[in-house]
Amino acid sequence: MSSLTTCLAIFAALAAFAFAPIAAQATAKVICYYDSRSFVREGLGKTNINDIEPALPFCTHLVYGNAGINGATNKLVSLNENQDLDQGKGHYRAITALKRKYPGLKILLGVGGGADSDSEKYLTLLESSAGRISFINSAYTLVKTYDFDGLDLSWQFPVVKPKKIRGTVSSFFHKLKKPFTSDTPVDEKWEEHREEFTALVRELKNSFRHDNYQLALTVLPNVNSSIYFDVPAIINNLDYVALAAFDFQTPERNPKEADYPAPLYELPERNPESNVNYQVQTWMGGRAPASKIVVGIPTYGRCWKLGEDSGITGVPPLRTPKEGHPEGPQVKIPGLVSYPEACAKLPNPSNAHLKGEDAPLRKVGDPTKRFGTYGYRLGDPDRDYEHGLWCSFEDPDTAGNKAGYVRAKGLGGIGIFDLTLDDFRGSCSGDKFPILRAAKYRL
């Protein structure tokens, strides 16, 4: 071989090596979730199909959520027939028609999620082979009739109980006491339900195979993956698994303690399972290919009121009053703020001189890129700490950090939960969907 030929061969090999990560990441998934309940919100929180269109060029998949289960028949049904079906406003048809404009986009119908939160009927369905058949037949009919590309199962399994944050001393004594006590399981038939869910996934995929429909799983927040999912048995029948690795701490689950709701890595003296990295390692440890694991990124934050026991540093975890968690003016869910609502609470020209409940929060960033961003307002100590507030929220920087984690680990992509809570109007910085954009660019 001539020296020129040798040099060219070496150059080609180096070029292939250098560009291999870029080629691999070119297929990274961006799963965009769209909560159809936003249609009926009032005021600035209302989100229609036209509002989400600027996001779609950034998405590889759109999950329209959520359909639910009819407990009497075990059939998959629209939760709002007047809104979704042809005899109503026809949103199912309108949403799948977007594929003509965005031909690379896969549109899946979401099942369950927070829109249909009665876990009992989901477990009951699993326990009956006839119930599973009824579900599968109805799911196939909905997908085919309305031209969806498949189904995303946000199956409603019972969630784990929240764990108290412990200091070093209390953690030591708790470990000594734990062997002599036992926690009541949230589901005494979890082994049975795991086997039955495996059967459902297998049977559902078999019914979809002829039409090449996709089947995906979204693991909802605080669902124990090691209990309910036989990873080696189901993973080959799933196109991807999206881990909704957030809401580990919420005002509803943890009314007396404010803390990061969606850390990337484990925090000191916290539950070691309550972070993105642990959830990813659990699935990879179960032999799930990295290429099928999607990391969920929320587009919202969680807020707790502060009181006299909360201290003055703002550093979490913080003791908080049990009652009265605030809600944002757009979404109007206690303890939850969309990204534009969180952004509006940070210092800006319009709130610089405001007081009381309208005063801006002091923002604290995350130079470690491990835990998240938060903001707080201590309140007036002379008025029983009225208007004290602590919020931790996802922003473009933290979303970018999580996308960077996905890229570094060679994972399958990101999931945006959801488009309606991102800044779809561009009210914060002028850019629409800043969290989606920041995460997409880091991929």
UniProtKB/TrEMBL annotation:
Q: Which Gene3D superfamilies match?
A: 3.10.50.10, Glycosidases (3.20.20.80)
**Which CDD domains does this chain map to?**
GH18_IDGF
Q: Name one Pfam family in it.
A: Glyco_hydro_18
The cross-references to PROSITE patterns, in alphabetical order and at most eight, read:
GH18_2
Gene Ontology molecular functions = chitin binding; chitinase activity
Example GO biological process term?
A: carbohydrate metabolic process
Which protein family is named in the record? Belongs to the glycosyl hydrolase 18 family. IDGF subfamily.
UniProt protein name: Uncharacterized protein
Organism the protein comes from: Phlebotomus papatasi (Sandfly)
Organism classification: Eukaryota, Metazoa, Ecdysozoa, Arthropoda, Hexapoda
